[in-house]
């Protein structure tokens, strides 16, 4: 070994073509391509299949599954889903912006428990949360008992099934997602901006609305879209807390697939939902890149 | 906005977020098989009931097994992809990374239906492995994102130093990179595990009538009426999740794991 060998670092093998090291990508590649990409491709194909009336389907190329979109049941469910998720998204992000901004300024000792609380709600899925809300909105154990105790109500009542119940549960479920989406950009946000505003005489609330919010425009737009898509996935809340008339697209898909055994129609709706979500997310990605770059 | 009003706002929202858990915990102490809040009487029998009854222990065991295997597989898929993308900029790794992010960009129902059709085509519908493998590829987004975040925190000077001291690629990975990203791998595993434990729609669509996971069991028993035992199960699940995340926060920087910038206090 010469002196040169030890003093000059060997160049790192970066940006090289295929070599033996990339072989470790084969197992994960196979897993993702077979068990994730394939299901979506097959689903796409099945959406054009012919549905045999007894509940199965056979390979074909028909457009009847997509033509069924013009069915009023589907159209009203679509309109309902989009409106519901838009409202949820706007309310969640509006509440989450000041919340996240305030939390990100707090001590670590407070931030960590709050993040843990948010993660708990986010990972609990709709099963436990839906169950909790059915109790909280029920007659025997619910919030109305407090109102009776306060003398506002004469007797306890049940607040579900109703559309308001679905919205409350979805807000609770989507709020942590909204906070965790905007938390990284807000924690990187340049604090000298609101400080400058304060030196110039703006109160903290005014500084928040006139300096912080406009500076984080891109973050807010992408959060709105991500929360919207996240809310579109809600599936159990409309069933547990609502009536069939309140069902969203996600519920309709499972209903067609499992209980009506119409897999091709479910697949067509699913493909449609995927396209909406992809278009929204890719569109907003382009938009925020443009405004930031 | 860091004034009394601001603190009140944060506290108020935090309390509202906790409200359902408080009520569920309260309901689980009811003496009779009815759900009252505030609870009437106090008993821990429902907890004993859950822990001694195979009706509940079976699904809990199934869910724990599915979650453990799915988490392990998801991390094994994500680690090489994130590493090859970060260290060598391999194009195929970038493509796989992009593919791995897709599950979280789409409503879970669409993935679930994809899995349902896929498993019934290849003949695994209703099997334990259909649930487990579907979970592992569905949840792969979490370790992909979190391990990548961890890799980005590594100072390249360490790698240059190790390399100039004669360490091979494998040695650098084992002695420098792995210890530095371990908290992130652990955090991602905890996150994946809890998500899989609670996942309903995929488990239901792929093997809902044969492989009874805990969420499926809860939904099924909701149909036959409520009992405080279900509230007790929920308390267990919430405590398990909170405990896991607390452990993660003890051994690593939780705020950094969710993407926040590290700031000195």
Protein described:
The complex is a heterodimer of chains A (293) and B (265). Chain A has 293 residues and is mainly α. Chain A has a domain at 81-187 and 224-292: MetI-like (MetI-like fold, Orthogonal Bundle), CATH 1.10.3720. Helices cover 70% and strands 1% of the residues of chain A. In chain A, strands 1-2 form a two-stranded antiparallel sheet. Chain B has 2 domains: 1-43, no CATH class; 54-257, MetI-like fold (Orthogonal Bundle). In chain B, helix 1 packs across helix 12, helix 2 crosses helix 12 (228-251) and helix 3 (54-88) packs across helix 11 (214-223). Chain B is globular, with a radius of gyration of 22 Å. Classes of the chains: A mainly alpha (293), B mainly alpha (265). Chains A and B meet through helix 2, helix 4, helix 5, helix 6 and helix 8 of A and helix 1, helix 3, helix 4, helix 5 and helix 6 of B.
